[in-house]
Amino acid sequence: MARFAVLVFPGTNCEGDVHHAIETVTGQPAELVWHKEGSLDGFDAAVVPGGFAHGDYLRAGGLARFSPVMEPLIRMAESGRAVAGICNGFQILQEAGLLPGAMLRNESLSYVCRDVRLRVEANSSPLTCGLEPGATLRMPVGHAEGNFRADDDVLEALEADEQVIFRYCDDGGEASDAANPNGSRNNIAGVRNARGNVAALMPHPDRAYEEALGGVDGRRLFESLHRFTES
């Protein structure tokens, strides 16, 4: 049996969605872990959910990176256990140096909240190990700072090493400008680290895992996360 930690910071607002999704989809226990905790011993994986950690003061994820729980989270990642981030969780993992790149304001300078389509680029991560490259998924985004940026050399390395795991695409699977909700370079919606055990995306699988929510494609990411913990 795998145990999942769902981190909670002041301002996090999707912890309940992620907790319920993990237990509903995987049948495994999940536990909410407050940001002041100093240990993640006994957990097989951790998810950093969406919201506005510490009010997104300074910048998204900028203060959360210094919460006490981040040191054990970094140790968890270094041990090879699965760490996943969703939306604000993605931003926090970048601020902590666990994922490459940075998030800027959306190109429109407006908050974007709508369904998007994603193309799976690689299945070498905790969120995609059960998916086929080239498959497309639909789920919502809800963010103001989701504009993925990286220097040219970093971006080139990400593409060459297949660290891009999701890309915004249209209904036909093409990574077009029109399908990009925030202006991210190369339509990047999700990435993994070089080792392959830390991954995150801006869209919300926790808002698309049962029919009552209007879509079930998010289930496949939680199924992948569970599969990764058992591999």
Strand content: 15-25%
CATH architecture, please? Answer: 3-Layer(aba) Sandwich
- Sum up the overall morphology in one term: globular
* Helix-strand pattern: EHEEHEHEEEEHEEEH
Helix/strand/pairing class, anyone? alpha/beta
- Number of strand elements: 11
- Quote the CATH topology: Rossmann fold
Oligomeric state of the chains in view: single chain
Percent range for helical residues? 10-25%
Give the structure's gist in a few sentences.
The protein contains five helices and eleven strands, in the order E-H-E-E-H-E-H-E-E-E-E-H-E-E-E-H. It has 231 residues and is of the alpha/beta class. Strand 10 and strand 11 form a beta hairpin.
Question: What labels would you give this structure?
Answer:
two-stranded antiparallel sheet, alpha/beta, Rossmann fold, 231 residues, globular
How would you sum up this structure, described in words?
This protein is an alpha/beta fold and 231 residues long. The protein has helices at 15-26, 70-78, 88-95, 152-160, 219-229, and strands spanning 4-8, 30-34, 45-48, 82-86, 102-104, 112-120, 136-143, 147-149, 164-169, 188-192, 198-201. Helix 1 (15-26) packs across helix 5 (219-229). The mean pLDDT is 97.
Question: What layout of secondary structure does this protein have?
Answer:
Layout: E1 4-8, H1 15-26, E2 30-34, E3 45-48, H2 70-78, E4 82-86, H3 88-95, E5 102-104, E6 112-120, E7 136-143, E8 147-149, H4 152-160, E9 164-169, E10 188-192, E11 198-201, H5 219-229
